[in-house]
Amino acid sequence: MTTTLVPYDEALTRYEPVLGIETHIELGTKSKMFCGCPTEFGAPPNTQVCPVCLGLPGALPVTNQAAIEGIIKIGLALNCSIVEWCRFARKNYFYPDMPKNFQISQYDEPLCVDGHLDVEVDGETYRIEIERVHMEEDTGKSLHVGGATGRIQGADYSLVDYNRAGIPLVEIVTKPIVATGDKAPLVARAYATELRELVRALGVSDVRMEQGSMRCDVNVSLMPTGSSVWGTRSETKNVNSLRSVERSVRHEIERQAGVLDAGERVVQETRHFHEDTGTTTSGRSKEEAQDYRYFPEPDLVPMAPPRAWVDELLSGRPELPAARRARVREEWSLSDKELQDIVNAGALDLIEETVRAGAEAAAARKWWMNELSRRATEQGVELTELPVTPADVVRVSALVAEGALNDKLARQVFDGVLAGEGTPDEVVEERGLKIVSDEGELAAVVDEVIAGNPDVADKIRGGKVAAAGALVGAVMKATRGQADAGRARELIIQKLTG
Amino acid sequence: MSTSVIKKTAAEVAEIFASGEASAEEIAREHLGRIKAVDGDVKAFLHVDEDNVLAQARAVDARRAAGERLGPLAGVPIAHKDVFTTKDMPTTCSSKILEGWQPPYDATVTARLREAGMVILGKTNMDEFAMGSSTENSAFGPTHNPWDLTKIPGGSSGGSSAAVAAYEAPLATGTDTGGSIRQPAAVTGLVGMKPTYGGSSRYGVIAFASSLDTPGPLARTVLDAALLHEAFSGHDPMDSTSIDRPVPPVVEAARRADVEGLRIGVVKEFGGEGYQPGVLARFREAVELLESLGAKVVEVSCPHFTYALPAYYLIAPSECSSNLARFDAMRYGLRVGDDGTRSAEEVMALTRAEGFGPEVKRRVMLGTYALSSGYYDAYYGKAQQVRTLIARDFDAAFEQVDVLVSPTTPTTAFPIGERADDPMAMYLADLCTIPSNLAGNAAISVPCGLADEDRLPVGLQVMAPVLADDRTYRVAAAVEKALQDRWGGPLLAQAPDLTEAVK
Amino acid sequence: MPDEHAATGSAEEAASGGAITRDDVAHLARLSRLALREDELEHLATQLGDIISAVARVQEVAAEDIPPTSHALALTNVFRADELRPGLTPEQALAGAPASEQQRFKVPRILDEEA
């Protein structure tokens, strides 16, 4: 069955989207959730396993305290209540990448409940209500061999690596997100972005969507505008970037509008998002409803986080993104737009570190947001990946401030640093990039230039001081840009009119 | 050293080793000889590797020679239930699905036996995945009761009980989920102890029902059981449900062996219909004996104990349905039907159907039912509430008395085959033992004589509060001492001589 | 545990410890991943029916307001420090595997039912 997509704007004239987002975040603990195996990404297959995470007969789980601290930090940052008592539960279903054929998770007793996260889209604030935040363990990973490339469908067999099995996973579930209208895809993206920033700020996960340490499942349903009865939802998985969060919502709105317009019913199903086409395809439809037979995990004892512990985690936490943004906006005198640009460029940490290391905020922002952002874009890398440190920027700014460099020379210094020629001082030294500040040397050049341009010199003598620009240009050219242009101008005028 | 070392208690064998009268190797050889002589008929062991046993024994001798301070049971051989993982021996839980599986790690109990300088003779037969009361549910054939080879040795630790009763080993490990140590001990004339839940580590014990499974000792004397209890119990950071407290002073209690002034409660609900007259007679005598030794005996009602059996047969299967899901032909064990065309799902289902025996399948299905959508509250949920009520019955009882007593099991050993396809009849064997599994408290079975009808052993169960394990040893030791004075020796001395019978 | 569990089976059915049909057994077998033969399904329908009506006795107990017990002892907050412990080598991990390839567990093709 092919569905005719309804153009987005048109779809929004007839339908109101309702969203729900389930986000899985792998915590960056040293060891796994229930055993002492490492959690490093990208290790050779089955090198980070033990009887516990392989689910060997007889092995038992023991909860990693750092993981529980991590989830409580996330819960608190999302304004959740931390429950006084809760248990782990077993979610029973068979799947080869799940070593015990049950996942240790939480069912009706999540650790954190009833929170919210405010996100901003086009100057408007949307409050995303958080239903629950619970703790669970990740599964292994399968490599599908034969058939179409790497796809599970049509594969001949699969190869399973359990390195990822048992990595602590926090699941964050929103309440239904309503009344976002045509902003729905942007709100979804803003939520995922803000959540990622929040978790990153807490330092409990590297939240790298491309590596799967943050994964979003996005539920979308449509109801006719003006109705209050929610439609049937689809659940889109495999949404592996912030951009995909936005695109998948947009696509589902267009697709479901097409289904509904055709008088058909939206099927409750899992759908897979495809980055290349920006579309979703049907996964398994839940014909036989799953029966997970949850029951309290008997191998783990209940958790009852003492109030003092929770308070300690709360008081010891770092500044959260929203507060931080408000602070730097104030401290650096930024407009909303300027701040947003910095955040979007991923430059906030870098600029703040540069300022903290002694640079003026304006200078730090100028170098990171203009010069260095441009180069990152040219090279197709993140700003953080450039081989330039905040300390380098501090040094270059200082050299400019003290008049040892001008902007043009400073750019050449960055060229050198990026090319691996060393620190800014080493580049200055090696390339001989120094403003000619020796008065005698500069005066000699000025004299040469005056002698070489008698016409212009006459004009200046005649009172046309503005013509001095041409001579300054000539001085700069003669010094290969290393002269202090302001001082050169002063000298020229002094010599011709003084 | 004479060949009679095999008839010695573990405490005596330990003394023989400690004094240098015999090496661990010599002691091990004697027991290997006994196994060779009788195990063809008893079938207590699934796996005995002589070379491995002798190597272990020599290593213990070397440790002693090097001056290492070894534990009180150093040099003593032990029969190890096949539910504990052992990295130098296969571990199968008597299931085809795990046939030949060699674990890459030792259970905590296994590691502690080795540390103590004990010599593991081999792995003992059991009901598959510890589900049963007769050891008939082993995929590798039943074990026979040394008192009467046509009878069951109890279960699920039936290989362990038979091995110790047949003098193949002075000690054995067991696990008790609903009575799987106490009931086999009772029907073979041994002492069997279920420690307080969490008192002994489950790490490396292949799980049947996680919230009930408890490793414990089987022995020919109360003191031996206490020595073994002390050797492998205590806190284990690898088991979250392990209690971080010192092991109760069980050895001291076993040596104390007096009940003067102790208040003993007879559980009113355990007796009458369904109980073999010979069992009830020996039980009554044991109670009278305790009274004569200075205990104050009263009758105590535990009204919810009669619901323990149905609650257990919901909770244990529910947990087992989940625990046994991992046996799926993907990572270890049997794989059936993988012909390149079948999916993983089909291979899993075929393997599990082929690899599990009928009782395991029954319980997996029953547990799946009890946990499934729409039935959870009426079955699993209700059973969990009954569990609370049973614990409350114990609490109320222990406000009035120090220990509770009952027959360990309603009947003596029954014939092999009698209840094989009658699950409900089989389940009754655990009637009296289950409440302590549900509440997690300590309970022991100690021999109290032979039933008149069949001259087979009867066990007295002594139950004590959580972490009062020592109290059960104190009472059991008092009973043992008084009865042995009366009998002129251990009950087991009245068992037929197997080597004679075999000849 | 509420809600999800109240989805299918009816309360009366559950309370009566209702008869188990062959189809019920087949459903349970699917959930339990057991490829049972037809004769096993029939036999188990009878046996499970008997057992279930026996264990349904738990429903006779007046247990209103009685909290359920999931653990034998009331321990809470058992955690371990976030420290590495030596695990298995890939050879040890794969030693018991029915099949392996590229240092991974080789399993038959997976029907896309989950994940």
Written description of the protein model:
The complex is a heterotrimer of chains A (498), B (503) and C (115). With 498 residues, chain A is α+β, with helices and mostly antiparallel strands. Chain A is built from 16 helices and 15 strands. In chain A, the strands form three sheets. A nine-stranded mixed β-sheet of chain A has the order 3-6-7-10-1-11-12-13-14. Chain A has a three-stranded antiparallel β-sheet with strand order 5-4-15, with no helix packed on it. In chain A, strand 6 and strand 7 (124-137) form a beta hairpin. Chain B has helices at residues 10-18, 24-42, 50-65, 108-115, 158-165, 182-188, 222-232, 250-256, 277-292, 308-323, 344-355, 358-371, 377-400, 423-427, 434-439, 469-487, 498-502, and strands at residues 45-47, 77-81, 119-124, 171-176, 191-194, 214-219, 263-267, 296-300, 403-407, 442-450, 457-464. In chain B, the strands form two sheets. An eight-stranded mixed β-sheet of chain B has the order 4-6-5-10-11-9-7-8, sandwiched between helices. Chain B has a three-stranded mixed β-sheet with strand order 1-3-2, with helices on both faces. In chain B, strand 2, helix 4 and strand 3 (119-124) form a beta-alpha-beta unit. Chain C is built from four helices and three strands, in the order H-H-H-E-H-E-E. The longest helix of chain C has 18 residues, at 38-55. Classes of the chains: A alpha+beta (498), B alpha/beta (503), C mainly alpha (115). Chains B and C meet through helix 10, helix 11, helix 12, helix 13 and helix 15 of B and helix 1, helix 2, helix 3 and strand 3 of C. Strand 9 of chain A pairs antiparallel with strand 3 of chain C, so a sheet runs across the interface. Chain C: This is Aspartyl/glutamyl-tRNA(Asn/Gln) amidotransferase subunit C.
Strand content of chain C: 5-15%
Ends distance of chain C: 24 Å
How much is the radius of gyration of chain A in Å? Answer: 30 Å
What is the overall shape of chain A?
A: elongated
Percent helix range of chain A:
25-40%
For the secondary structure, the number of strands of chain C is 3
Low-confidence runs of at least 5 consecutive residues of chain A: none
What structural class do you assign from the helix and strand content of chain C? mainly alpha
The geometry of chain C reads as flat
Low-confidence runs of at least 5 consecutive residues of chain C = 1-17
Mean pLDDT figure of chain C: 85
